[in-house]
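Feature request, filed as a ticket because there's no other form

It would be nice if the structure record came with a short human-readable summary line next to the tokens. Right now we just get the raw output. Example of a typical job, pasted below so the devs can see what we mean:
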Amino acid sequence: MDPWYDKIDKEIKSRNDKCRLDGVNSVYHVDDPYQYGSYEAFMKNHPVNLKKGQPQLAELREFRKRYCSGAKNTGMSKLDPGGRYFIKANSEMYCKQLKGKWDPTSRNRHDKFSRGMCWKTGADKECGAAVDNDFVLSRDVLSSKAWANAKTNSKSKCAALPDKCHWNDFTNERGDCDADAASEEDADAAPASASEEAYASTSEDFDAASAPEEAYASTSEDPDTSAAPEEAYASTSEDPDASEETYA
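Raw output as currently delivered:
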């Protein structure tokens, strides 16, 4: 049985899939969905209430207009202090725009709960994958024994790649398996110093997707349906680009 944080992650990804079915780069956004501490509490605070008995296509349109917000690219090109991964690129869609290397199974170093990492290079991805997901997990939900075992396993797997990776302890409780150098296959990867302006200028798809929900509604196939999000959703959704502490 999946732990509560993995169930929340799957629910958010499922909602994201519905948001993107019309070909628009839209996302389902909730600031810090893991703050609730349980899947049940998350669903209670962020329910999906749709009209009963309507056709599947009509239900999908209603979902998109009520729960999908425009994708925002601001800050997406920002790397972690070590220059290994894009902090806010939490989906394959974003990662492709940045020419990063997407790993859908590794636990996210930034929020420490969700699955999916956008690494800067293939070498970063390979070394990062050597780390046990339990070691990346927030210490609030992991016992000391489980954490110690996860660290031991992670360092062992990292040591098994001596020509590519090395273990790096950031603090007493945090560390990672870092790449020694970028491989030749990553020569065309996005540069660490890429500015947000440069990224935005090459991301035409995001310019359309980042429009507010009202603009998105005006281009919908069903303009008569209200595009306003529920009050509960609006009151709990803040700017997804607000600064947070980095994993390192």
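Something like this underneath would help us a lot:
The two ends are 30 Å apart (CA to CA).
The beta strands are 26-27, 69-70, 101-107, 115-119, 165-169, 175-179.
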